[in-house]
Amino acid sequence: MTTADLHTLTGAYVLHALGPEERVEFEHHLMECPSCDQEVRELAATAGKLSLVVAMVPPPELKQQVMRRISTERQEPPGPGRARLERRSGGRALSRFVLAACVAAAMGLGGVSLWQHQEANDARQAAQRAERQSAELAAVLSAPDAKLAAGGLPGGAKGTVVVSTSLNKAAFFTSGMPEPAAGKVYQLWFNDNGTMRSAGLMNPATPNNAVLMKGPVDAASGMGVTVEPAGGSSEPTSAPLAVMNFPT
Amino acid sequence: MKEPVFAGRPAPAQPDLQELIGLVARGDHEAFSRVYDAVCGPVLGLVRAVLRDPAQSEEVTQEVLMEVWRTAARYQPSRGSAMTWILTLAHRRAVDRVRSAQAASDREQRAALLDRTPEYDEVTEQVEASLEREQVRRCLGGLTELQRQSVTLAYYRGLAYSEVAELLAVPLGTVKTRLRDGLIRLRDCLGVTV
Fold first, then answer.
1. Per the database record, which ranges form the Anti-sigma K factor RskA C-terminal domain (chain A) (predicted)?
2. Same domain, residue pair A34 and A127
């Protein structure tokens, strides 16, 4: 995505209307674009005003419940910190996050500076973002034996596959994938010793995409991506765009 | 933290929300009670607009208020007003809830969701007389049809911009632009400054 494109995402960003990858990319851009940051603050305040129109009178028991809950809920100290990140979610959140940063780096999103910035400024937000990803996807990323391999796709797009043998699951990340032609979809395949087994479709709506591959890895030694008619195929009907071997 | 602690000092008669959040950060239950009174109506209304289901809406509203309690010390006034901070938390949590429900549902259910007729007009039916609400309504009325539909579907229904594009049958880039220029027009109409 070009810088000019990123500028136009301020509205979608404050309305929480971006997908997870675009959101990360835009937040990265925000660090380098003070005028975008200012616009985001103004538009967030504007969006908040829209809630006045739908305000309603809360039931009285809601307040009683909330007041009861706060008396037993510990408050967090000011300022972000890694200690809190570890305390909140145990060591796993950190390893998941490190791996996510590696994936971002492999995708060319500037993962290293992203990591440094977030560690310094807002590790907690980053952890929440990771938590918002689907639980299974996060489980693959945070698996102790997760391994990743990156490769090129046609048109300068990049693909990264993360495999966990213990979970018998794999996840596939892409960056810069063009939308497929009308009536076509991307389909993922496990490579079972030369036989392609469907691993589900890839959402073409966003150029940066993370998807949990459907089905177990089992004995597959790699994966492939093909373009198929909408709805997918039971076996590949076109030459693969890319074939990648799983990391060993 | 070397921040001075004012525990025990009586709160001023009418402190604004930002001061109250400062007191909440120090564990002041009375201040939290007043924050609750000030924000719960808009928070519940917003979450309810997105989620529709009353029980789930109250659950998410509770989560939002608990997050305010837990993280009050992390609120940064330089980033915006306390109200904006809380409403941003509320919208994000409501949207997360909707998206996780979508992720769990199969393709048919998802298609059914997208086929559902948008109900953004319903939103403005719930208005009670109030100067600021009237102003928001008036400014919403000043948007182009596509701006208004894009902004209201994203905000009140919690749709991703790709879903807005699908519903309105317009290109993705158009929705991105309408979300931005629609909010900019609202900002100028409402005179929002940060």
1. 100-240
2. no
- Cα A166 to Cα A83, A142, B117: the distances in Å are 28, 11, 44
Provide the number of CB pairs (under 8 Å) joining chain A to chain B: 199
Question: Are A157 and A241 within one domain?
Answer: yes
Domain B107-194 belongs in CATH node 1.10.10.10: yes
Whether the CB-CB separation of A171 and A103 falls below 8 Å is answered with: no
- Please tell me the class of the B1-104 domain: mainly alpha
Q: Which residues contact A157 (CB under 8 A, 6 or more apart)?
A: A174, A175, A176, A177, A178, A207
Alpha-carbon distance A134 to nearest alpha carbon in chain B (angstroms): 8
Q: pLDDT tens-digit profile of B108-152? A: 455 555 554 444 444 443 444 477 888 999 999 999 999 999 999
- Interface contact A134-B103, CB threshold 8 A: yes
pTM over 0.80: no
Strand ordering across the sheet containing A158-164:
A147-152, A158-164, A169-175, A209-212
